[in-house]
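Human: If only I could read backbone structure tokens as easily as an amino acid sequence. Underneath my words sits a plain record pairing an amino acid chain with its backbone structure tokens. Take your time, and here it is.
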Amino acid sequence: MADQTVIGKTGRVTGKIAPGMVGEVMLAVRGGSEAFHAYAADDGVTFAVGSRILVVEYFPPRTVLVIRL
């Protein structure tokens, strides 16, 4: 069951996250890696591709809010 939990997972940005834009992150869940739409938890923050992130909020089925690690 713990592998299905999204909040608290770390991952990498695969599509730039910027103000007013949806980005993409890859997270290890359910025994594999899955892509999720991602927004910055803090307004005005940009995440470059390759940045390490932590998921702080999850909106099913595939959207997360993230912070930088």
